[in-house]
Amino acid sequence: MSARMIVDLAEGNIVLFGGAPEPGMPDAGLTNGFSRASAETFQAALGTIGALVKTVEASIDTMSQKPEGIEIEFGATLSQDCDLWIVSPDSAPEFKIRLSWGKNG
Predict the structure, then answer these.
(1) How many folded domains does the chain comprise?
(2) Which InterPro entries match (predicted)?
């Protein structure tokens, strides 16, 4: 199960992950059991996707015979500490990410 987290954004807004309001129930108490993260911590977690992409691109560049196109799809979810975990896109992640390189990418 993914983390239940509140991310405090710089503009004063919040983003909630890992929970949803129940139909007909008030939002009061919805955030019980959630951990909290700053916008900077959340941005750092999402920034790891860029590092992952650079690693994949470097691996593609070393191929002597590159395919015409490459597509990678994965899911990402947040831990209680706002670390980004790469998971199967079929595991109900908070984010589904599809990357492609080549003729159609």
Answers:
(1) 1
(2) Trypco1 (IPR045794)
